[in-house]
């Protein structure tokens, strides 16, 4: 049987040492556990035009909903990221490794309206399987962008 190791999950409750922080919450995983991976490129036609700023907020809510799903199930995020391109030469990059969500948008496009986007997704999560990760990732994206995704 594989060894079981204790992983520390990032949370607001932590204590510091000189070298790093420790969380009081714990996760458990197998020593040689293989992560679930979902990676795809999806072209989407939104139901209505949205501002780049509004799209950015929806993408951030999507990443946060995935983080919450991971934490609720006591899984562990390796990396979740998306690169989104629009028809007006704008792009949004958003990523998390479980704690903070980083987001960058190309300059001078915040107020532009978009209807078509291409989403490049990569999600790596320990504790689940590829099929479940794909389903949850796409389901939450559909819910927040109000679209139907076929892939």
Structure, briefly:
With 151 residues, the chain is of the alpha+beta class.
What is this structure's SSE topology?
Elements: E1 4-8, E2 14-16, E3 21-23, E4 26-30, E5 36-51, H1 52-72, E6 76-86, E7 91-96, E8 101-105, E9 113-126, H2 130-145
Antiparallel strand pairs: 1-4, 2-3, 5-9, 6-7, 6-9, 7-8
Helix pairs in contact: 1-2
Notable traits:
151 residues, alpha+beta, Hypothetical Protein Yjia, Chain: A,domain 2, 5-stranded antiparallel beta sheet, 9 strands, 25% helix, disordered N terminus
Describe the protein:
The chain is elongated, with a radius of gyration of 17 Å. The protein is built from 2 helices and 9 strands, in the order βββββαββββα. The chain folds into 2 domains: 1-33, no CATH class; 35-145, Hypothetical Protein Yjia, Chain: A,domain 2, CATH 3.30.1220. Strands 5-9-6-7-8 form a 5-stranded antiparallel beta sheet. The protein has a two-stranded antiparallel ribbon with strand order 1-4. The protein has helices spanning 52-72, 130-145; strands at residues 4-8, 14-16, 21-23, 26-30, 36-51, 76-86, 91-96, 101-105, 113-126. Strand 7 (91-96) and strand 8 form a beta hairpin. 25% of the residues lie in helices and 45% in strands. The chain has 151 residues and is α+β, with helices and mostly antiparallel strands.
What is the helix fraction of residues, given as a range? 10-25%
Distance, first to last CA: 36 Å
Q: How many discrete domains?
A: 2
**Do you know the CATH architecture of the largest domain?**
2-Layer Sandwich
Shape: elongated
């Amino acid at each position: 049987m594989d060894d079981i190791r204790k992983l520390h999950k990032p949370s607001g409750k932590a204590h510091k040492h000189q070298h790093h922080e420790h969380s009081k919450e714990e996760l458990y995983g197998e020593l040689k556990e293989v992560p679930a991976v979902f990676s795809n490129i999806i072209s989407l036609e939104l139901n209505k035009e949205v501002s780049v700023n509004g799209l950015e907020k929806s993408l951030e809510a999507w990443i946060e909903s995935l983080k919450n799903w991971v934490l609720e199930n006591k899984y562990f995020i390796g990396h979740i990221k998306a690169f989104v391109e629009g028809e007006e030469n704008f792009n949004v990059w958003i990523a998390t490794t479980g704690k903070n969500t980083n987001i960058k948008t190309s300059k001078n496009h915040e107020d532009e309206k978009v209807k078509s986007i291409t989403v490049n997704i990569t999600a790596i999560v320990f504790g689940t399987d590829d099929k479940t990760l794909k389903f949850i990732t796409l389901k939450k994206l559909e819910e927040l962008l109000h679209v139907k995704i076929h892939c």
